[in-house]
């Protein structure tokens, strides 16, 4: 996770400006000025976005697991290689992979579970407000659209319509005021998050450990481990960007290089600490 923080610090997103999607209520306001009815329902999500992509949360969890798995076990095996015993490197590396994978998986599970609990708490509070305090609910609706500069008449009309249907009001406030969706905070998401992080960490950590299984020379295994880890980091950075929907190969290449550089910095720093303590 420290690797992700360093990446955001050194390589902030640039080169484009994200244009916020047009608000459905803005479209309704424009239509109302043209004399068209404003009571039509919004299209289903699948109609608004036909591009199917991998869930961004899964990619985020995989990034956490793989990035840590590629760097931390590498630093450990590099430090153990100084002992000159291949068996120590292999067994120590496998033990770290298992313990680290379990620890990372539990962390992801507990984090996602806490998010689900926070969602349920916000949902209960919102339902209570809608049922007992219409004035506060109306104020929450209006505050959700402050940045859009809607006419007061339009806001009042929307608020009145929403208050007439408590379930619709609760759903609206959760989506637009709290900016929370039920699909992202279900109980199953906690298991998926934990499993994704744990699996990513384990298989990512196997990459720098594999050369020690095939080379008798400790030096050759260490050099091969460096090369394999660098290639794996580059491939992962490229694939992650591509899976997010990026079509520009140059952007994928840059992100692959960024991941490789940052992984090298993290692994080098860990190795330096080991050598400093050993000396």
UniProtKB/TrEMBL annotation:
Biased composition regions of type Basic and acidic residues, renumbered to the chain: 26-42
Asked if the keyword Electron transport belongs to this entry, the reply reads no
Which portions of the sequence form the region Disordered? 17-49
Listed GO MF terms: manganese ion transmembrane transporter activity
Q: Which residue ranges run through the membrane? A: 195-214, 221-239, 259-278
Which keywords describe this protein according to UniProt?
A: Membrane, Transmembrane, Transmembrane helix
Where are the annotated coiled coils located?
none
Q: Where in the cell is it found?
A: Endomembrane system
Q: How does it sit in the membrane?
A: Multi-pass membrane protein
Any one cellular-component term (Gene Ontology):
endomembrane system
Q: Name one GO biological process term.
A: intracellular manganese ion homeostasis
Q: Which family does the similarity line name?
A: Belongs to the CCC1 family.
Q: Which PANTHER family match?
A: FE(2+)/MN(2+) TRANSPORTER PCL1
- Please identify the protein, giving its name as recorded: Protein ccc1
Look up and give the organism this protein is from.
Answer: Extremus antarcticus
Q: What gene name is given for the protein in this entry? A: CCC1_1
